[in-house]
Each structure stands twice: as C-alpha cells, then as structure tokens.
Design brief:
The chain is α+β, with helices and mostly antiparallel strands. The chain has helices spanning 2-22, 150-198, and strands at residues 27-30, 33-37, 42-44, 46-49, 60-67, 74-80, 82-84, 95-97, 108-110, 119-126, 136-143. It is found in: Membrane.
C-alpha cells in the first residue's frame, strides 16, 4: 500500500513541476509617468517580452484606466487579433490602437486628451502559456502647457547668457573697427592738410 502512495505522490509532483516549467513570466515595460498638453494626442507606450512565439490571434492586450480619487479601474481598450475600441464612455473616439504585437508593442494613442483623462493607465499582456504577474502602469498628467524641467531651464539660462556675451563681444569688435577707421581717416586728412599748407 505504501508503494502505491509513493508512486501517486511521485506522479503528482511530476505533473506539478512540468506545469510550472511550461509557464513563463511575461515582462511588460512602460514609462512610470507621462505629461500631455490638453487637446493634443499622446501615445501610451507599452512594450512586452515573451519567451513564447508571438501570434496575432494568441496575444491579448487589455488597457484599463483608474481615475484620480478612485480605487477601481475600468476597462477601456482590448486587442486580440482585432481592435476593440471603446464604443461608449469617456474614451469613445479617443483611444486608438498604435501597437504591433508581432514586434512586442502593445501601445495605444489617446487623441485630443482632456483634463478628465488624468489618472493611472494599466497595460496587461497575455501570451499563453506566458502569464503576467504585474501590469505596466503609466500615470498621465494632462496640463495646460508642458512644464519645463530644471535641466531645460538651466540649458536656456546658460544658452541665453552665452548669446548675450557673444552679442556684446560682436558689438565691441564693430565699435573698435569703426573707431580705428575714423582715426586712420583723421590722420590721412591731417597729412593732406599739412602738405597743402607747405605748397
């Protein structure tokens, strides 16, 4: 009887470990934060890496949106062989497919973004038997104008200072050249005047 249990236990372990070895981890990559100007288009970039062969009909992409101040996300976009754009709600006519699953790209583009689009977007990709532990997340901030980063401000300040210094240097050189020419003309006139008096 004990041998039967040992055989059964061994067979069960073999099944479990073979199943685990076939299931791989799906890796999804997104930028953590994104800023967009109100009324413009913005691409929500989502790429993925799978150990399994990619197929148009096999790979599925799901996008969800969690508005600011809410805890439950809502599905807004789906792709699996065909594009399933939102037919109602906030993103109708705004969310379009811009990815290519055969190249590991699951991106969508939001057209004419509004302030109501502020929130967290999640990109989930499946390619059985690959599974995904964590979806890619992007926090979108819709603003009136793009805010300059500290590096941009520093670059503008340094570039402006260099420009002003070059302008002052050019003006100084021009003034020196004109003064030198005036002095040369005065000397020539004095020399000609002296010669006329001698004659």
């Amino acid at each position: 009887m004990s041998r039967v249990w040992i055989y059964l236990f061994s067979a069960l372990c073999a099944l479990v470990f073979s199943g685990v070895s076939q299931v791989e981890g799906m890796e999804v990559f997104t930028s953590p934060e994104l800023e967009a100007v109100n009324g413009t288009d913005v691409q929500l970039k989502c790429t993925f890496k799978s150990t399994q062969p990619l197929s148009e009909g096999k790979v599925s992409v799901s996008w969800s949106f969690q508005p600011l101040g809410k805890t439950i996300p809502e599905a807004i976009f789906h792709y699996q062989g065909n594009v399933y754009e939102p037919t109602a709600g906030l993103f109708k006519g705004h969310a379009v497919w811009s990815g290519d699953v055969m190249k590991g790209d699951a991106s969508i583009t939001l057209q004419d973004v509004q302030f109501s689009f502020n929130g967290t977007y999640r990109c989930q990709v499946r390619n059985p038997p690959d599974f995904q532990g964590f979806p890619g997340e992007i926090k979108l901030k819709v603003v009136q104008k793009v805010s300059f980063s500290e590096i941009s401000i520093l670059a503008i300040a340094v570039g402006g200072s260099i420009g002003i210094i070059l302008l002052i240097l050019i003006i100084y050189i021009i003034v020196r050249v004109f003064r030198r020419r005036e002095n040369e003309m005065e000397i020539e006139m004095e020399e000609h005047g002296g010669k006329d008096q001698v004659l």
